[in-house]
Amino acid sequence: MNCVSFDITKYGAKHDSDVTQAIANAWKDACAAPTRSKVYIPKGTFKLSKAFFAGPCKNPIGFEIAGTLQAPSKANGFQEGQGWITFEKINQLTIYGGGTFDGNGAVNLTFKKVKIVAPKDSWTTDGIHLGRSSNVTITDSVIQTGDDCISIGDGTRDLEITKVVCGPGHGISIGSLGKYENEQPVEGIIVKNCTFKGTSNGVRIKTWQASRDGIARDMHFSDLIMDNVETPISIDQEYCPWGVCSQFKGKPSKIKLSDISFKNIKGTCSTPVGIKLVCGGYGCKDVKLSGIDLKYNGKDGKLTSVCKNVKPSVSGYMNPSACSH
């Protein structure tokens, strides 16, 4: 970003010290700058008690974080509904830089009314990636990106995603899982009341072909709207992009998938495969489909489903028929 930089160290910020006042002063000057500006957090760890970044600002403004902003270990001094870092009433804000917002504790986390935008042709730009986290909620948010809107890595437990609008992007994905040794189980995932617009997938579980052993269970997807989505419902245990698994051909995924439900999912598909349930060496256990109403808006045949190593239980209306191919 070509702009005027307001480095917090020029305002007295020092490593491993509380920089609350320094960062507030840097923001104030950057927000009032007569040209495009940014607040800059250099490499290193800086402690931050609480920050409220308010607009409107005179020009587009950036927040470049190359280092780490670390929250207090105890949430003292916070009132109900207050955030640790809050951006409010700001137009044309860009947050970037590859640094870290370190929550510094096991306190539950909520993403609410967040908007994340990246070009649809930008590679590996996951909107939100979670891993080895528990009791996280993502709600009332819009995510437009070139990769997964939300990707869910190993060790994620008790995650609830509601009222998210996703698209463009690759959808909301659990995985990919099984690429590395000693991955932790994924369990307790709820995705509901979400809308997908022009994405390559809707909701997806993906594990690497020839993967290590692992577990993903208790995953439930319901009350979803699909708008021109390539594959709205997908379990892919033969995931292997870029052709890197040719040497593993015929070796199945060893991630055990179980207790999975897809319920009340409606809308349109841009390919003939509305449901893809391709499971690995252990098969997928206790998979339920209920109230699926999809329509194919193309001309390359009729809407269908593709299944492998799975026998889902079916109830309610189903279009396409479960495992019809």
UniProtKB/TrEMBL annotation:
Gene3D superfamilies reported in the protein's UniProt record: Single-stranded right-handed beta-helix, Pectin lyase-like
PROSITE patterns cross-referenced by the UniProt entry: POLYGALACTURONASE
One GO process term, biological-process aspect: cell wall organization
Keywords tagged on the record: Cell wall, Cell wall biogenesis/degradation, Glycosidase, Hydrolase, Secreted
GO molecular function, one term: polygalacturonase activity
Active site: H170
Compartments, record wording: Secreted, Cell wall
Superkingdom of origin organism: Eukaryota
Name of the protein: Polygalacturonase
Biological source species: Cannabis sativa (Hemp)
